[in-house]
Design a protein that fits this description.
237 residues; alpha+beta; five-stranded antiparallel beta sheet; two-stranded antiparallel sheet; 34% helix; 21% strand; globular
Length: 237
Amino acid sequence: MQVKTKAIVISALKYQDKSLIVKCFTQSDGLKSYFVRDAFSSRKSNQKIAYFQPLTVLEIVAIHKNKGTLEHFKEIKLAATFQTIPIDVIKSTIVLFLSEMLHHSIQEEEANEPLFLYLETALLWLDTHDETANFHLILLLEITKFLGFYPDISDSEFPFFEMTEGVFTPFHAISSLSEHETNLFKKLLDLKFDNDQKTFHVIERQLLLKIIIDYYTYHLQGFKNPKSLAVLKEVFS
């Protein structure tokens, strides 16, 4: 079956000497993995390695056999040409980290167009703005809406956030954030990309990142900490 769709590159794994296995989050079909033969050969001008950098947004024509095997691209082009992400160390580190988070978070091989459109819009925002210190925190929290475990804020006046149920409570449990952590978390829940990026200090930002990763771990079976986490912390230290 031939499919024309947009796709966001989640990961690219080198296979043997010249080929790639590329995992994409497609607008039409959710997660798909593609085999790119001779990706490192100059003869394949339409399948450049640059296309498969983390979170690149592509327009593809692909053959989907939907048999649980690797699919194949027929045509590839950039849907959006990022101007700053590839050359800005902070932005490229954020994107690398987020691609790993998504790799471990998006697990269903089915369409989730609202999540795709949100990610595409967010990446375009990142590329066109300079103050981005809270971008990854806001995005990771927002996409829990699409993954099914966004915090229940109906009782947000309570002083503790309980991680396993995703609710605010009047009492502290083993799986609850402290009162200080909960207050930081509440501030993050209210933030949008265009808010003041100096809302948090470096230490507070690192604490919030740990909270979010722990929250993902509670709610996603088999979730693993991204290897790029240490690099992200170094960039923002």
